TrEMBL record:
Residues 3-128 form the ApaG domain. It comes from Flavobacterium luminosum. InterPro entries: ApaG_domain, ApaG_sf. It comes from the Bacteria. SUPFAM superfamilies: ApaG-like. The lineage of its organism: Bacteria, Pseudomonadati, Bacteroidota, Flavobacteriia, Flavobacteriales. This is Co2+/Mg2+ efflux protein ApaG.
Length: 128
């Protein structure tokens, strides 16, 4: 598990290799990731958007931007935790992801970015 705290918001990530799939006449490697967001600040915040940079060992880069996470824009009061799971397909058996969440602080009404720490995606059979 990797963790990062930005302005009192703690992000923790765990990953799982899910298997191989054929898509568009090519082998792909499926990974799930489980993200826990903890509000250790004194203010309520809302997750508004996400930005991902997904790299695979073949030097492919995919950038993903979107509203919320898994169709939601969760509000976290001080001390609250929100967890969700999602996934991605890579063309290589290993890679990395990193990014940030854009959040709004309800007290200051300002938006800020919360770092999602880089994390590895690796199929167990691909490791030495």
């Amino acid at each position: 598990m990797v963790t990062q705290i930005t302005q009192g918001i703690k992000i923790s990530v765990m990953t799982t290799f899910e298997g191989t799939y054929f898509k568009n006449h090519a082998m792909h490697f499926a990974f799930s990731y489980h993200i826990t967001i903890e509000n250790h600040s004194k203010d309520s915040v809302q997750l508004m958007a996400r930005h991902w940079e997904i790299f695979d060992a073949l030097n492919d880069l995919e950038t993903v931007d979107g509203e919320g996470v898994v169709g939601k824009k969760p509000v976290l009061k001080p001390g609250e935790i929100y967890t969700y799971s999602s996934g991605c397909l890579l063309r290589a058996p290993f890679g990395t992801m990193q990014g940030y969440f854009t959040m709004i602080n309800f007290t200051s009404t300002k938006s800020f970015e919360v770092i999602i720490p880089p994390f590895k995606l690796s199929a167990p059979f691909a490791l030495n």
